[in-house]
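input
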Amino acid sequence: MKIGIPKEIKTNENRVSLVPAGAEALVAAGHEVVVETGAGQGSGFADEQYVAAGARIAADADAVWAAADLIVKVKEPIAPEWPRIRPGQVIFTYFHFAASEALTRAHIASGAVCIAYETVELPSGELPLLTPMSEVAGRMAVQEGAKYLEKLYGGRGILLGGVPGVPPAKVVILGGGMVGVNAAKMAAGLGASVVILDVSLERLRHLSDVMPANVQLIFSNHHNLLEQIAGADLVIGAVLIPGAIAPRLIRRVDLKTMRQGAVIVDVAIDQGGCVETMYPTTHENPTFVVDGVIHYGVANMPGGVPTTSTLALTNATLPYVLQLANRGWRRALQESPALLKGLNIADGKLTHRKVAEAFGLDCHPAESMVDEHSAEG
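output
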């Protein structure tokens, strides 16, 4: 199979979807790997390293897309890339379709097979390809939030961990999943006073056993949320419903209860955001202010630390890339229930229920798309 690795063109996205070691593994398995020139540069990988691993370097993105049966990316194809997509071409990347109807409709119209990292799911419920970036984003959320609490950036002028004789900052985390846990570890490690809100009592009980003493666990409802954000210096949105648009937990009116110069980092922004006033921002212009509260809405946070993020991501994705390349997408999905859950669009049909619900579109069972034809797509 021909596998294409285009350079990411989303603003300040420096990650790459395949490292030279991965290219070497694919070539050893008998596949052809075509990498756009400069694709790995932002993560510290030169073209020469890919060539040494057996990959071929293409001069531009058009050549990569035209040659490849399987396109492996980091972020969803954006509008300039849509004309390059061919019917039947397999695209394996983070899509987050529920956050954009235009993106969803464009990929339905393309006739491509879209397998989303974020909805690949193990029988245990774990999301193995979302986990590494959730770990990075959770930790970054605290790092970025601490920075924007500084007076220089318009924040309250609060040091996250305080000092002896001065209380630490209060960090409120909405959601006790992978992002929330990693954010809590970082914030607690820096000495902040941390609160995690979650709707699962089972999850809260588990976290009470593993979190340090400066992390408080509270059941999430609107009353408790308002009470906690009123005294918060930093709020981190970390909610996730796999494949679905994020619930809006903080409304515009709620901001009036918050402290001036407080910071909200909404990690859920790539799924639409859990704060009504939040919209996607970039690493170049990461923040804006509403009602005196600093909003940070960078939709590709891990792209700010691309070397760490690329290695973490590709460690997780390569086994699945090999499955798709070795078996073809239909057989790979037939044999892997986890990969089957990653199928969002195929043959012009939407196959993920949560995405369909977000836009009122018809949904077709993923199993029917895999079993419909015996020939490989």
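quick obs: The first strand starts at residue 2 and ends at 5.
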